[in-house]
Amino acid sequence: MDRLARQVGHAKETTHHYFQLLAGINPFDCASREALAKLPLTRKRDLIDLQKQHPPFGGLNALPRSRAKRVFASPGPIYELQGMETDHWRMARVLYAAGFRHGDLIHNCFSYHFTPGAFIFEGGARKLGCSVFPGGTGQTEQQVQAMADLRPDGYVGTPSFLRIIIEKAEEMGADLGSLKKACVSGEALPGVTRTWLGERGITVRQCYATADIGVIAYETEAEEGLVVEEDVLVEIVRPGTGDPVADGEVGEVVVTTFNADYPLIRFATGDLSAIMPGRSPCGRSNIRLRGWLGRADQTTKVKGMFVHPEQVAEIARRNPEVSRLRLVVDNPDAQDRMVLHCEAADAVGGLREKLVDALREQTKLRGTVEFVAPGGLPNDGKVIEDKRVY
């Protein structure tokens, strides 16, 4: 927590964005999770506009562009920089948990083009003492040939591409028996794919990382959730707000980093997850996430008007009698319709009319209200559910 206070101070002193966002906030008061939860969010979805206003990095960078090792572009475009340290994104610990060791040769099939994906894993490999073959994406037959010739110990890339490579190797009659482990990211790892690769002698572990933050959480040999990386602070908040939810409840992943070059404070990723109870059987003591559970940014357009999760959250804030809300949008008879589903112990005293008025005030659209018993709405993090069929 002492480190958190110093990082908040560093971000405020060295970046244009946090100098403005944290104006009036004393960094030394930010020495607890409760104090952190009171700071404003910086949302990933806003980075494109921020970077247009303050090019090229939106004023979030403490490291000047001239001192960056590399500069990348992710879809959006969103621009990120890499500092000079070997493992800028903290991947070495993840690779170690996936079974990689000093001296291994890693076949890297993340993209080396535009985005930092390949370099995120390569930095961790170099810190761990592994050598890397830069396979990149595509060219499946050439990937198989290189693996057959070089005999790598493991693979990093997406799980779907690893399966494609193994299928091609089997078709070609190539021996890829040296591959014993893989660390995958960038997409979901279906259980059927893990089993299929395991039947071919490849142990697969997954990690959750983003281009701007780096590693957020990673899988261990226990294969029970993802252990949060030790050099970030993770909160799970109710979508549309910055309010932390109870452990086990699905919400948006918010991350605070200790990266001095790009000091993100309460960075809302737009991803949904939940904190798992207890500790990992592998012995690591940090909190665990259930994994990627969807997207938190559920903004939708109804009758030509955008409706945002923040508007639903504001209705909840103004009506504490309601414990949870879910706005369902459908289109019977090809006409958009909004129904606000509300968890409430007691729906008397004009609460329905009050909520109908609040919905119209916030969204400028008409809708109806339905009540359910407390605990009656699904625990899936959804604030807006779009059920329209076209």
From TrEMBL:
<protein>
    <submittedName>
        <fullName>AMP-dependent synthetase</fullName>
    </submittedName>
</protein>
<dbReference type="InterPro" id="IPR045851">
    <property type="entry name" value="AMP-bd_C_sf"/>
</dbReference>
<feature type="domain" description="AMP-dependent synthetase/ligase">
    <location>
        <begin position="100"/>
        <end position="256"/>
    </location>
</feature>
<dbReference type="InterPro" id="IPR042099">
    <property type="entry name" value="ANL_N_sf"/>
</dbReference>
<dbReference type="Pfam" id="PF00501">
    <property type="entry name" value="AMP-binding"/>
</dbReference>
<dbReference type="InterPro" id="IPR000873">
    <property type="entry name" value="AMP-dep_synth/lig_dom"/>
</dbReference>
